[in-house]
Amino acid sequence: MMRESPKATPWGQSYRIAFFTLYAAAIMAACAWLFSSIYQIAPDSRAIVYRFGKPVRVEGAGLLFAWPYPIERVERVPGAERILERDVLALQREQQLSQINSWDRDNDAGAGAGYLLTGDAGVVQLNVRVFWRVSDPVQFALQQPHIDPLIDRLTERAAAVVCVGRDLDSILVTRPETLQNDSHAAQERIQLRSDFKQAMTQSLLKLADGGNDPGIRIERVDITSSLPENAVAAFNAVLAAGQQAEQAVASARTAAALRTQQAQQQSDRTLQQAEANRQEILAQANVDTQTITQLADARRAGLDGGLLQRIWRDKVTRILAQAGQVITVAPGDDSRLILQGLPAQPATPTNSEKQP
């Protein structure tokens, strides 16, 4: 009886199938391992190649070949062309209250949560959104888990520095009635975003000088400023009171101007009447003294010509015309005087005549 070959036995066939299966699996794993070293990098991204955990090179967009893991590892980071944004929630009141214990919310810690102090002892709320990009891919990749907290801390510091160096009117419009008259405050409000960005950039430069460069650059800062809810009503009340005061002042000025105008008109009329009376009295005085003035001028010039006698006779004639009796006295005889007689009085009855 002939002996069967090992390949023809069932065990031989099983071994053969298992061998080819493992061989195919090994080939497929090797192919997968080799193909896993090919990466496609998006146009707005960059790739950092780590060799045994150490960054060795930075690659741009396109296909990238690297040794398979664990020899090399590829990490994708945003490229310099991509602008990322971060909505900073750390400045919002709800976020800060959530970090305060419930028994501390009723004291100063809870009252001041989410508010920033201004240079004129006012308070304001800021909602900030930061737009940034990656400037150093390697430094960014090394500190990527800490980038968002870093942006929050830089924003909080910049907000405190910018607000404390400004008054409330240079941050937001609190008094609309003075907006057209306060051009400096309007310019300060426009400059607010630029100063905010500059403060954050200076903080990043200080980190870079200290050897802790996060590898990011601030591009733009959007700021929405608002007043606390309980302060809005107070500001509205102050604004209404100011408007009412201005209306009262305007009414008082109008009344004062009217009374001043009336007083000025009365003063003008009084002056005109006084001037007319003065001219009338002066004219009457000139008429009354014209004769005496002519006489004085004539006697002063030695040209009397009997003017004094004529005036005397004219005046004496008027006087004597009013007298009831005239007694003439010889010149040089002063034994008798001319006395003005009393006017005739009606006869009064005696006491005996009054009695019946």
From TrEMBL:
Top-level lineage group: Bacteria
Keywords for this protein: Hydrolase, Membrane, Protease, Transmembrane, Transmembrane helix
CDD domains: SPFH_HflK (cd03404)
Start and end residues of each Band domain: 36-239
Membrane-crossing segments per the record: 20-42
One term of GO molecular function: peptidase activity
Entry annotated with the keyword Ribosomal protein: no
Gene3D superfamilies reported for this sequence: Band 7 domain
The protein's name in its UniProt record: Protease modulator HflK
Species whose genome carries this gene: Kluyvera ascorbata
